């Protein structure tokens, strides 16, 4: 377990670099993770996906079905891979401060 | 030396072999078959189970399908081995006249006994050399081999080589009769007389010594695979009866007639 | 990073992660001693394990039958050699020849390095049992992998992925950590999707009392495999079933089988039996999950701590039965893609499901092409036993482990025009193959089998 300083706040990360406590998330965290994922700049679509994930997680304590994510944000799966090169589960969840998905995913 | 090998060691060998095997089987029996790990496709009847056992034990079915090149060496080696063991018992007990019982003349029976023994001896020798060659030549096999694996093969090859020399060079060999006498002494716990031919046939003593080493090593080595095969197949080839298919309270024609799933306004193509 | 002396290793669970699955990791200075103690327990309990330790002749027949060895060419990934990593310790401590002759028979003292070696290599084995099928004696190397993973678990050495799943199973009853509201929301969303795409009204009853059928889907279906859930819902609606999905154990898989067959696996079984009892179930029907179906079909009888009055079958047993009795109207032309079938190892070598899969797929697909070798001779997708690790080193290994499967898929030709379907009716296979068909550029899309049933059903 490691902790990093993001915009003046200590944030705890697990071995895979996901946030340990999703409530600590701020937009600065998304920007911090973006650089590690090879995303130069977060555009509106990035934020749309990130905010949708956070809202869904707040309500259901789980990431949404990928098909639902695509439908509700209007982004095709292919486009999500363009936005987040490591994919919806590992990439966008990390930026949105969600825990790493477990199980057969 | 010959006296030790022929008169004392056999009893030690017999004890080590028997107690060793019982000890090993006891260890296996103490552990249990905890979960059902039958390999599918499942045998559905006991006849099918027997067929699986039979084809595995007699024809090495799995090996035939999975590694044909190895099967050639392994199958011929084992068939020759069991024929030779059977041949030793029959030949020595019946003095080579065992084929008389299936209608041959005495002379022909002895000729057949010698011919079969020599043939299987040569087959086994070649097969063992091939198996040894594999251990050196094929990378994946070399990678799974440790020293004792080579030693087992070399021991077997030595036994067969000595046996074959005794067959092919009659002056160095021995006939059935003196061996039968010797075995009778052993079994009836009588001392072997000093003038007995077996004590004066050096290769016989060498052959017997090597065999006894093999038998003493047997319970403490991978040679236990002979019995392990049955124990393992007993676990993974069992009869399995499938539960009956069919779901409770299902009437598909009625469900279709009621149009289940179709929106009430209809209109699905 | 997850390598140790040139061996790849999955990211490890922390002490805190282990605590959540009720294990206090053994301190390093006691690990060796404890490992021997646990090894002694395993050998006294499992005959399959003792026999694997004591009757291998190391003929090498397993080598070419192991996709892990074929993909990595690492000699320690030959099943006989992988087992030898334990056998050398077993010989040293539990056999006369090992104690007396040591190195000559390949015996070796235990050390922390050996434990690290176990962790690396027994988490590259996918427990697919192709070596058990190939072995002339029937030695089941999967049993060795299971025993060693159990020992490692007790020592506190488990991949983070598996430990996380273990904790989620205990918390909410499924691997992905889905709480009931998430389950209900996803299923409602899928009802809408079915209406949009197929024009059919399908409801997914959750925890409905007095249901006849308990359908246990894989929790990965809620995140990744929408058509698998949709297909099952459409099938049950089509036949007019009184069915329900349990929210307390919405999980066809059971990672306990893969790293802890004592507490973790049994705990999930207990949850299932409780759910069946509470909901007044008459029959339990299993969803698409390979290891989970093995855990259910073959292990529940020996793991349940009370009588199990409910028959348990797989959804494809039931669909196949309805196909054979001509009760379903299926239009194979609706699935207009060349399709091949990947036999999940656990279905075809542990559960005898291979013929039913074919009955179903041939009824649903017009252009079906067999992949060879198939049925019980199938090769693993490379992800078996959930070695779905995604850190860079292990991900590279996954690509190697799926190389054999990729070669076989390519040989069927279904992906030649880039519009093939690769039917892989198992959640681990799906999770492994989604990225792997891209890595190997196979030109196929991965589908479940009940997905295709849903697409092929004719409603009127």
From TrEMBL, chain A:
Q: Where along the chain is the active site annotated?
A: 104 (cysteine persulfide intermediate)
**InterPro entries per UniProt:** DsrC-like_C, DsrC-like_dom_sf, DsrC-like_N, DsrC/TusE
User: Which BP terms in the Gene Ontology apply to this protein?
Assistant: tRNA wobble position uridine thiolation
Molecular function in Gene Ontology: sulfur carrier activity
Which cellular components does GO assign to this protein? Answer: cytoplasm
Asked if the Swiss-Prot or TrEMBL record annotates the protein with the keyword Cytoplasm, the reply is yes
Q: Which domain of life is it from?
A: Bacteria
- Keywords, comma-separated and alphabetical: Cytoplasm
The listed locations are: Cytoplasm
> According to its UniProt record, which protein family does this protein belong to?
Belongs to the DsrC/TusE family.
Q: What is this protein called?
A: tRNA 2-thiouridine synthesizing protein E
UniProtKB/TrEMBL annotation, chain B:
Record keywords, A-Z? Cell membrane, Electron transport, Membrane, Oxidoreductase, Transmembrane, Transmembrane helix, Transport
**Which residue spans traverse the membrane?**
6-25, 68-95, 115-133, 153-170, 199-220
Main location group: membrane
Entry keyword annotation includes Transmembrane:
yes
Could you tell me where this protein is found in the cell?
Cell membrane
- A Pfam family for this UniProt protein? Nitrate_red_gam
Topology relative to the lipid bilayer, per the entry, is: Multi-pass membrane protein
Gene Ontology, cellular component aspect = plasma membrane
Its Gene Ontology biological processes? Answer: anaerobic electron transport chain
Q: Where is the NarG-like domain?
A: 69-228
Molecular function (Gene Ontology), one example: electron transfer activity
- Establish whether keyword Electron transport is in the entry: yes
Q: Which PANTHER family match?
A: NITRATE REDUCTASE PRIVATE CHAPERONE, REDOX ENZYME MATURATION PROTEIN REMP FAMILY, RESPIRATORY NITRATE REDUCTASE 1 GAMMA CHAIN
Q: What is this protein called?
A: Sulfite reduction-associated complex DsrMKJOP protein DsrM
Q: What is the phylogenetic placement of the source species in the record?
A: Bacteria, Bacillati, Bacillota, Clostridia, Eubacteriales
Automatic annotation (TrEMBL), chain C:
User: Ranges for the 4Fe-4S ferredoxin-type domain?
Assistant: 47-76
Q: Which PROSITE patterns match?
A: 4FE4S_FER_1, 4FE4S_FER_2
- InterPro entries xrefs: 4Fe4S_Fe-S-bd (IPR017896), 4Fe4S_Fe_S_CS (IPR017900), Helical_ferredxn (IPR009051)
SUPFAM superfamilies in the record = alpha-helical ferredoxin
Where in this chain does the entry annotate a coiled-coil region?
none
Superkingdom of the organism of origin? Bacteria
GO MF: 4 iron, 4 sulfur cluster binding; metal ion binding
- Chain segments annotated as transmembrane: none
UniProt keywords, alphabetically = 4Fe-4S, Electron transport, Iron, Iron-sulfur, Metal-binding, Transport
The name under which this protein is listed is Sulfite reduction-associated complex DsrMKJOP protein DsrK
Organism from which the protein derives: Desulfocucumis palustris
């Amino acid at each position: 377990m490691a902790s990093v300083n993001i915009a003046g706040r200590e944030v705890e990360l697990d071995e895979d670099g996901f946030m340990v406590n999703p409530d600590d998330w701020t937009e600065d965290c998304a920007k911090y993770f973006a650089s590690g994922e090879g995303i130069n700049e977060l555009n509106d679509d990035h934020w749309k996906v990130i905010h949708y994930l956070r809202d869904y997680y707040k309500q259901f304590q789980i990431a949404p079905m990928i098909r639902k994510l695509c439908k509700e944000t209007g982004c095709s799966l292919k486009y999500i891979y363009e936005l987040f090169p490591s994919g919806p589960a590992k990439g966008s969840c990390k930026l949105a401060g969600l825990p790493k998905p477990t199980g057969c995913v | 030396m010959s006296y030790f090998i022929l008169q004392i060691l056999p009893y030690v060998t017999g004890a080590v072999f028997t107690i060793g095997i019982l000890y090993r089987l006891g260890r296996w029996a103490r552990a249990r078959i905890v979960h059902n790990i039958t390999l599918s496709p499942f045998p559905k009847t006991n006849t099918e189970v027997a067929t699986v056992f039979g084809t595995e034990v007699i024809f090495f079915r799995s090996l035939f399908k999975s590694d044909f090149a190895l099967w050639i060496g392994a199958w011929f080696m084992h068939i020759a081995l069991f024929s030779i063991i059977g041949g030793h018992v029959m030949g020595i007990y019946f003095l080579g006249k065992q084929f008389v019982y299936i209608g041959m003349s005495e002379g022909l029976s002895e000729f057949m006994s010698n011919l079969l023994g020599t043939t299987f001896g040569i087959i086994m020798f070649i097969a063992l050399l091939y198996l040894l060659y594999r251990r050196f030549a094929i990378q994946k096999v070399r990678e799974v081999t440790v020293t004792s694996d080579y030693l087992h093969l070399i021991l077997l090859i030595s036994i067969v080589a000595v046996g074959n020399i005794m067959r092919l060079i009659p002056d160095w060999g021995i006939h059935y009769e003196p061996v039968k006498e010797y075995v009778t002494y052993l079994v009836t716990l009588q001392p072997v007389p000093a003038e007995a031919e077996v004590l004066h046939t050096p290769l016989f003593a060498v052959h017997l010594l090597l065999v006894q080493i093999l038998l003493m090593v047997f319970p403490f080595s991978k040679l236990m695979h002979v019995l392990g095969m049955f124990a393992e197949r007993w676990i993974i080839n069992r009869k399995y009866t499938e539960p009956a298919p069919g779901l409770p309270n299902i009437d598909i024609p009625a469900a279709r007639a009621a149009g289940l799933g179709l929106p009430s306004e209809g209109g699905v193509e | 990073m997850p390598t140790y002396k040139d061996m790849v290793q999955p990211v490890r669970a922390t002490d805190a992660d282990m605590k959540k699955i009720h294990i206090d990791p053994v301190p390093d200075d006691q690990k060796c001693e404890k490992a021997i103690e646990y090894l002694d327990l395993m050998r006294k309990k499992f005959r399959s394990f003792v026999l694997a330790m004591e009757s291998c002749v190391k003929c090498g027949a397993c080598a070419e039958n192991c996709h892990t060895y074929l993909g990595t060419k690492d000699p320690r990934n030959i099943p006989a050699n992988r087992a030898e990593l334990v056998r050398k310790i077993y010989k040293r401590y539990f056999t006369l020849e090992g104690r007396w002759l040591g190195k000559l028979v390949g015996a070796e003292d235990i050390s922390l390095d050996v434990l690290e070696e176990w962790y690396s290599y027994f988490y590259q084995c996918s427990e697919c049992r192709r070596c058990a099928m190939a072995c002339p004696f029937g030695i089941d190397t999967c049993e060795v992998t299971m025993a060693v993973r159990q020992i490692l678990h007790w020592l506190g050495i488990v991949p983070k992925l598996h430990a996380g799943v273990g904790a989620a199973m205990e918390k909410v009853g499924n691997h992905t950590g889905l709480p009931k509201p998430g389950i209900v929301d996803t299923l409602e969303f899928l009802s809408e999707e079915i209406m949009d795409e197929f024009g059919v009204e399908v409801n997914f009853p959750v925890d409905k009392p007095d249901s006849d059928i308990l359908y246990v889907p894989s929790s990965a279906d809620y995140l990744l495999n929408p058509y698998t859930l949709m297909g099952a819902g459409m099938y049950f609606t089509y036949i007019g079933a009184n069915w329900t999905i349990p929210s307390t154990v919405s999980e066809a898989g059971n990672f306990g089988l893969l790293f802890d067959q004592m507490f973790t696996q049994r705990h999930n079984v207990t949850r299932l039996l409780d759910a069946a009892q509470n909901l007044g179930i008459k029959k339990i029907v299993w969803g698409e999950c390979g290891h989970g179906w093995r855990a259910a079909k073959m292990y529940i009888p020996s793991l349940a701590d009370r009588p199990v009055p409910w028959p348990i079958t797989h959804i494809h047993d039931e669909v196949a039965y309805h196909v054979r009795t001509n009760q379903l109207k299926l239009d194979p032309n609706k699935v207009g893609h060349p399709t091949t079938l990947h036999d999940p190892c656990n279905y075809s070598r542990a559960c005898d499901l291979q013929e039913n899969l074919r009955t179903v797929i041939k009824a649903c697909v017009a252009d079906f092409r067999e992949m060879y070798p198939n049925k019980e001779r199938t090769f693993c997708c490379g992800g078996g036993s959930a070695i779905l690790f995604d850190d860079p080193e292990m991900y590279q290994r996954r690509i190697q482990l799926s190389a054999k499967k990729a070669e076989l898929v390519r040989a069927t030709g279904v992906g030649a025009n880039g519009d093939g379907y690769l039917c892989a009716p198992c959640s681990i296979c799906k999770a492994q193959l989604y990225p792997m068909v891209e890595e190997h550029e196979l030109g196929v899309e991965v589908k479940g089998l009940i997905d295709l049933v849903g697409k092929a059903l004719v409603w009127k």
